[in-house]
Amino acid sequence: MSKLRARGYQGTVITASAGNHGLGVAAASLELGMPAAIYVPAGADSAKLAAIRATGPTAELRPVDGSYDDTERAAREASAGGSGGHFLSSYNDASVVAGQGTIALELLDQWPEVEAVVAPVGGGGLISGLGVALGALAPQVKLFGVEPEASPAMSRSLAAGRITPIADGSTSIAEGLVGNLDSDAITFELARRYVSEIVLVSESEIADAVAAVYLTAGLVVEPSAAAAVAAVPKIVSAHGPRRVACVLTGRNISGSAHRELVNRSLVKPSGYDPAPASVGAGPTSTQQ
Ligand SMILES: Cc1ncc(COP(=O)(O)O)c(C=O)c1O
Fold first, then answer.
1. Which of 122, 140, 143, 154 has the smallest set of CB atoms within 10 Å of its CB?
2. Ligand 1: distance of its center to the CA of 257 in Å?
3. Is the pLDDT of residue 7 over 90?
């Protein structure tokens, strides 16, 4: 948004988000004094909606009944019609991807010995930024993406060799990772180039990982972040890296939803089971 401002843009920034990107846009809108309209699915986590609302008067929250894909359609229509506004994609934007890449710079600075990086994948902006930065600075580091089985948009596209839609309206507790890729998503080619493999994780693996991160590290993370942790046993089992960094991308989850996931994991007979499931070779080997 500061780049838009530097180019002289004076209008509204319009975005669609499952919550976290919207929160970032709201914060930038306040800091830069740029008006923003943030479209989110009405069923988004209440903590995310409350945080966006609390950010301040420059950002207007516009909840949309329906899926993430419905939400993005509504935002794009608003951007194209009426008083218009610049549509800022949460992933299909070179500046957003570059911003995400700075995470890899911090990581390499803090842990130069890292052997593998694992990150959740929604539209692929994060994994693309990590890939570009690691590819330039530490190409020996393997990069793994993680998607919910319920929404494998990137892995299915990589398997097909072109951007391939998945069923509209799929749902996952990792709601930040749900949705289709734009037909011109820049993240597809970047993921193809830089990502070793996309691992798929089930809903119960994601839920158990939320609990495991809390019970072992004392950290509250939301399911979209915990998905990366859920994939680690599979990655270690299949590829054997010893020094693995997981990008814990968010902690925006209501207390009640987090408590429920932790309690559910505690009362399950098996508890959290980090035993590796099967992973084969290639970008889509875990797809089911
Ligand atoms: C918590 C969290 N992690 C990861 C992602 C994935 O980011 P990307 O869409 O850039 O792949 C998102 C996207 O909204 C998210 O909310």
1. 140
2. 19
3. yes
